[in-house]
Amino acid sequence: MSHRPIILGIVGDSAAGKTTLTRGIAQVLGTENVTVICTDDYHRYDRTQRAELGITALNPDCNYLDIMQQHLTLLRTGQPILKPIYNHDTGAFDPPEYIKPSRFVIVEGLLGYSTRGARDCYDVKVYLAPPESLRTQWKIKRDTLKRGYSEEQVREALEKREPDSEQFIRPQRKWADVIVTFYPPDNSENGSSLNVKLVLRPTIPHPDFTEILGDESHHPLTAVRLGLTRDMGKPVDVLEIDSHATLEQVNDLEKMLCNEIPTLKSFCSTGDSTELGALVGTTGETLQSYPLALTQLLIAYHMIKAIKLM
Q1: Paired strand residues for 287
Q2: What is the CATH number of the domain that holds 180?
Q3: 1 in a domain, yes or no?
Q4: The model's pTM
């Protein structure tokens, strides 16, 4: 198909920020143009069954990965699927949903890169890798406020799931084109004010940030930095954006993305989107984050750019 859907994968552990990242990307692309798929829907067992079997949702054996892969293949060719639905509130399965892919498909979840067949379906692959201390903070906040668990229950679940996180979730990092790490400045515990580090692997063509940022050795203290390092033994670019970056400091980077992709222009420095860069503060207030907004813009850039690469 000359107009098949463009598929983005967003993989990360539980409460790594997948839904927050997805929300802003969908806003940039136009929610009417985006279909969001959660791979958690392909769990093989409900919450009660998992407890009885002593298996976690992170274990591939607890998921219908073959059906997930089959559905991704169908979506890639523009065909509809009858997708299962796992209800995180009840821990049970709801009736399946008929899904017809839009121009863009965002696939988020725990095990999206766990099979080669699934990996081959994505145009852009993102992995979220926040520090474990921050992810713990996010998971406690989410599961106590939205899913009715106590903090003790959440911590017990995290401890139980850790071996599977190490064995099945984190190894998927190696398949990503972009690795996103949000982290508190100066290792503070403030989860609302976050820097971001973006590892940009040469598996997809990234914008030439050197034109506006140069090398970090020349500007090591700026709030927006570009550097070169090695990841898994191979050279990669690293783009870092600090939480205290001002609009003026991020403006050139923003303009670069938006001038190349006209679709993005309405989101550059205008505040047209309520979702772009939006995150929830420690007291429930909605905050705007330049590091998050620019991350969402960059990933949306790659999705639109992928159309030209087909």
Answers
A1: 279
A2: 3.40.50.300
A3: no
A4: 0.91
